[in-house]
Write a structure and sequence with these properties.
Number of strands: 12
Radius of gyration: 25 Å
Largest sheet: 5 strands, mixed
Distance between the termini: 63 Å
């Protein structure tokens, strides 16, 4: 048997990976057909490109570049504020289309998902390739956005395949063709292989994915860490990472950041943003029944330099009222009055189950229980009326001074449907809304 053959059968299982093509701008083009084919970017509210359409990419515009630089590369650029509410709705509908074909769908990110199609050929009376193409077609037909798909026998191979040809790409790597496909694939193109690992593998004479996959198991076990060994196995056709259909509930950390524009040196406003980061992170932790042992905070300057601090809590807690004083101490260490800052962030670390704990010797147990009851009510109100309906008083400057958005709000943000409030929107995007100024699109003005 040829040692280059890693699987004796083509489809011992079938794993599909779908990857949205310039997802945010594709959603904008679906809602506003007049923008199709134009050089557009999202991120106008931050002054930094969050996503660029393929027309903009063709002009050299890339994610993460300042907006002024993007305009220099492409004077006709259309810059839109990021409408994450609408993008999330498109994401949910895309994943629901996937679930029509298989219940085993893992939502990997807002624009990516894995689906296990194993055993679905008989039920759907089609080959795995036909099923994958049908999914791709239905997403395009129903949502007006395109995705690239990769079909193989493991998650790593499926992810590699979906990146091979974009946009509207469809790449298949059956088990018996693994070696042929990996032969010309640079090792740095493998999902999970970063620059440091690439350089290390180069010292071992590994240049291509096939070189990596053909390394002896003993060498891999001795020279690489556990993630590297797992990727090596997946490349050879062994399923190490199953498709996890359930919602993620295990987190090593939970972080929330906020980038605002224009940058500011206002200490009260910066601490308000930091507290809002804390409230958002703690809300997510409570939703999953988790509490951190440590908390970290950072401030990012106008020149993108970032400085952070962390502290250990007296006991695990996911209640902002109990962590706020610690966060204040971290902020006072970080903040420099003469500096201008563009972003804040909070990370909850060393997460564990939020179970009853022994209170500290001089802590008031009755007060602690009242705080816990208070946040149970906060969560109920947030579910009903929207997050941050109740918030810490020190974060209120955000409500007074604004959330730090640059440019006009999105059309969806400007429009309240019947029964909606400023904080609570229904899960409905707006398609081709009528512009009050004749029929000129508001995006054509700047």
């Amino acid at each position: 048997m040829d040692e280059r053959i890693f699987s004796l059968t083509s489809w011992p299982r079938a794993i599909l990976h779908i990857d949205g093509d310039a997802f945010f701008t594709s959603c904008e083009e679906a809602i506003h057909p007049e923008l199709k084919g134009k050089a557009i970017v999202t991120g106008g509210e931050r002054g930094i490109v969050a996503c660029a359409s393929y027309a903009a990419k063709g002009m050299g515009v890339r994610r993460g570049v300042p907006l002024h630089e993007a305009r220099r590369l492409c004077p006709a650029l259309v810059a839109l504020p990021s409408d994450y509410e609408t993008y999330s709705l498109f994401s949910r509908r895309m994943f629901n289309i996937l679930r029509r074909f298989t219940p085993q769908v893992e939502e990997y990110s807002i624009d990516e998902a894995f689906a296990d199609l194993s055993g679905m050929r008989r039920a759907l009376r089609a080959s795995y390739e036909t099923i994958a193409l049908k999914i791709q077609h239905e997403i395009d037909r129903e949502l007006g956005i395109t995705v690239s798909t990769g079909l193989s026998i493991t998650k790593v191979l499926a992810k590699v395949a979906s990146k091979h040809r974009k946009p509207r790409g469809f790449t298949v790597i059956p088990g018996r063709a693994i070696a042929a496909y990996l032969a010309d694939l640079p090792v740095e193109k493998i999902w999970g292989i970063g620059p440091a690992t690439t350089q290390y593998l180069a010292k071992l004479g590994v240049r291509t994915a096939l070189d990596f996959a053909r390394l002896p198991e003993r060498t891999v076990q001795e020279r690489l860490t556990k993630p590297g060994v797992e990727i090596w196995r997946e490349l050879r056709g062994d399923l190490v990472y199953p498709v996890l259909a359930e919602e993620k509930s295990v987190y090593a950390s939970i972080g929330k950041t906020k980038t605002f524009a224009p940058p500011t040196s206002d200490g009260d406003y910066l601490f308000a943003q930091l507290l809002r980061n804390l409230e958002s992170a703690c809300t997510k932790a409570r939703r999953h029944g988790l509490a951190p042992h440590r908390v970290a905070a950072f401030l990012r300057k106008q020149n993108f330099d970032t400085e952070g601090r962390e502290a250990k809590l007296n006991r695990p807690s996911a209640l902002p009222l109990e962590i706020a004083a610690v966060l204040r101490g971290l902020f006072d260490e970080l903040y420099r009055r003469r500096e201008s800052y563009r972003a804040t962030g909070v990370v909850l670390l060393d997460l564990g189950q939020d179970s009853p704990v022994q209170y500290a010797l001089f802590e008031d147990p009755l007060k602690a229980e009242r705080v816990r009851d208070l946040y149970a009510a906060v969560d109920l109100l947030s579910d009903r009326y929207g997050k941050h309906t109740l918030h810490l008083g020190a974060s209120h400057p955000i409500e007074v001074l604004g959330k730090g958005r640059r440019g006009a709000p999105t059309i969806r943000e400007q429009t309240l449907l019947f029964g909606e409030t400023r904080r609570k929107h229904l899960g409905i995007p707006l398609f081709r809304p009528e512009s009050p100024e004749n029929e000129q699109s508001p995006h054509d003005k700047g």
